Amino acid sequence: MTACSRHRSTFLVIAAALVIALFAEATRAAPNIVLIMADDMGYECVGANGGTSYKTPHLDRLAKTGLRFEHCHSQPLCTPSRVQIMTGLYNDRSYIRFGLLDPKATTFAHMLKKAGYATCVAGKWQLEGGLDAPSHFGFDEYCLWQLTRRPSRYPNPGLEINGELVDYTSGEYGPDVVCDYLCDFITRHKDGPFFAYYPMILPHWPFEPTPDSADWDPQAKGATKGQGKNRYFADMVAYTDKMVGKIVARLEELDLRDDTLVLFTCDNGTAVGIESRMGEKVVPGGKGKTTDNGTHVPLIANWPGVVPAGVSHDLVDFTDVLPTLAEISGAPLPAGVELDGRSFAPQLRGEPGRPRTWIFSWYERNGRRNQASRWARDQHFKLYDNGRFFDVVADPKEETPLDPASLSDAQRKVREEFQAVLDAREKYK
User: Fold this and answer.
1) Chain centroid to CA 315: how far?
2) Beta strands 310-317 and 158-161: pairing type?
3) Residues whose CB falls within 8 Å of the CB of residue 346, separated by 6 or more in sequence, listed in order
4) Which of 40, 213, 285, 306 lies 20 to 30 Å from 237 when distance is taken between CA atoms?
């Protein structure tokens, strides 16, 4: 071989390696995305967060090998949170009433579909719009409960799958059916990129036996209303964790873990009436409340080789999810929409990013503008628009507002910043 031939051969090898490296980087720049949101399961329910009442080994493993956020906040209730996470907008701009997503809304599914992602939603809908609603909001396919009706969601469920009403009568369990559908979607789109949104059915009441409970009855029709028995809540949290493990296992079987960002969170605090423990500390369920136990939820991000293992103390809320997915995927942000969220994608890459110094909330279950609760907060303090100012670390139940006349200089500065936030949002009030 001549020197010229050797040089040409070496060049070709280097060029090929460079092409492979660039291809791998391009693939990693547009990962598959699995977004999981449990239903009524507060921060205290996850073992990795310090919870001691429930078994969550799969979530704990994701947290140990990924990034666990200590200060993520949802809205106090399901529909407000679903609207906020899907649109990147605070409820003062996006919320109409309970159980409805504005038909004019632009969602993260629209955004990712436009960027070439296959999109699927499986689990609980509760946003109206008829059998065509998921398609209208950017999803290619779906397997859902409570799209147009409310039959059993647990044993022998009634679901809606891609325009068809499907009733199960042979002992099927709703959470298994929707999770298996999502796993099948992942398998069919393993060449990616895909976006799998999993707003879980579990562990929302009615609290009933799961297939792993000693008294599971495959012939049961399932309750359609009422709380059920609180003693089953622990079984349902364990099954929630099991479903997360099933999805991760499917990604591993398909050799997709290194190409997939998995995010886990919850739509609001734990149901009222449930008491959970974090060691010696008892945490009452706060669903529907504006206190921490109503809005403080888990957030775990796991993407091997990209998201470093650790704990983030940064402040995050549900408006931040859409811009984060945009930055991670390379998808353009929705045109003509000024988002309220801030991307935490840099933190997922191990960079400092631009952490928030405050988050805002507008909350009223039925969308009544003159009855909404409005507040701004950070990890330590919280200001309502009626002037109540709380140290939520020392007073998590918000029983004793701080005296404005006795604030320290640092507290006064924080209060002024929060007041400026509330004042700026007056135009949407």
Assistant:
1) 15
2) unpaired
3) 352, 353, 354
4) 306
Q: Which amino acid is at 323?
A: P
- What's the pTM value of the predicted model, to 2 decimals? 0.93
Q: C-alpha angle 107/110/115, rounded to 5°?
A: 135
Closest listed residue to residue 169, CA positions, set 181, 154, 180, 157: 157
Question: How many other C-beta atoms can be found within 10 angstroms of the C-beta atom of residue 282?
Answer: 11
**Which pLDDT belongs to residue 351?**
97
State the Cα–Cα distance between residues 251 and 256, nearest whole angstrom: 5
Question: Shortest CA distance to 296 belongs to which of 42, 35, 41, 50?
Answer: 42
Residue-level pLDDT at 221: 85
| pLDDT for the residue 2 | 57
pLDDT tens digits, one per residue of 210-268: 999 999 999 998 876 777 888 999 999 999 999 999 999 999 999 999 999 999 999 99
Q: How far apart are CA 327 and CA 220, in angstroms?
A: 45
Let me know: does 143 contact 182? Beta carbons within 8 Å: yes
Yes or no: domain 29-350 corresponds to CATH 1.10.8.60: no
Are 284 and 293 in contact, with CB atoms under 8 Å apart? yes
**The pairing of beta strand 381-384 with beta strand 389-391:** antiparallel
Coil, helix or strand at residue 77 = coil
Pairing of strands 381-384, 373-377: antiparallel
pLDDT for 182 equals 98
Q: Which of 283, 302, 276, 294 is nearest to 55 (CA)?
A: 276
* Per-residue pLDDT tens digits for 293-307: 999 999 999 999 999
DSSP 48-73: GGT--SS--HHHHHHHHHSEEEEEEE
Q: Using the Cα atoms of residue 64, residue 85, residue 36 and residue 274 in order, give the sign of their dihedral.
A: positive
- Rounded Cα distance between 94 and 224, Å, is 29
Q: Are 54 and 390 in contact (CB under 8 A)?
A: no
Cα–Cα dist 333/221, whole Å: 44
Q: How far apart are CA 305 and CA 260, in angstroms?
A: 10
Q: Cα angle at 141 between 135 and 143, to 5 degrees?
A: 110
Record the tokens describing residue 297, joined without a space. Answer: 């939820």
DSSP code, position 160: E
257 backbone dihedrals φ, ψ, rounded to 5° = -60, -40
Segments of the chain assigned to CATH 3.40.720.10: 29-350
Query: Which positions of the chain have pLDDT values less than 50?
Result: 3, 10-28
